[in-house]
Amino acid sequence: MQEPTLVRIGSALSGLMLVLFLVVHLAGLLPALVAPVQFEHYATALHHQPWLPLLEISLAAIAAVHLSCTVAKTLRNRGAGNTATLRSRRGRPLEALASRSKVAAGVITLGFLLLHLQQLRWPRPSDGLEREVLQQVLLQPISLGVYAAGSLAVGLHLLHGAEAAHRNLGWLTPANSASIRWGGRLLASGIGGGFLLISLGLALGGLA
Asked: 3-class DSSP state for residue 86?
């Protein structure tokens, strides 16, 4: 509760909006594993939408807000002398690990995002070649390692962020805390595991 209210709310709301984007993005990528033709039709239609640049600018702004608020909270905590090592007192060591490593997970996620954009957005693959280019990227061991690490980092970051966002917004209560924590675990495993599954599946499919 030491962080200014605006910073806590900004971090929580921007994080929740980014989670919504991840869910939609994951849903759009899943057909690449099981329905390649439908995936290419979806990707081509999406990248020809006139509102896509505005959406990308908005996502970049939301990500910048989330990063700025996170850095501000981290610096404020360190400035206040908060250097204690977090340990789980409720038999939840994974959540404690996610909280301790939230900065590292965020840095890994940012690095993965920049690489992903450089490989598949600047420039964008030609129509009908989105899946093929992505598969060729994932056949490179270094790229596959980065994508796998990014998927795990996203999952770990979500494991911490789901509960933290509800707490920062004042939505976490003793009555709903168990539901929010279990929901956070499902969300983290579903999104992080989903991106990891797609990365490994396309890489193995390319080898086959």
From this structure: coil
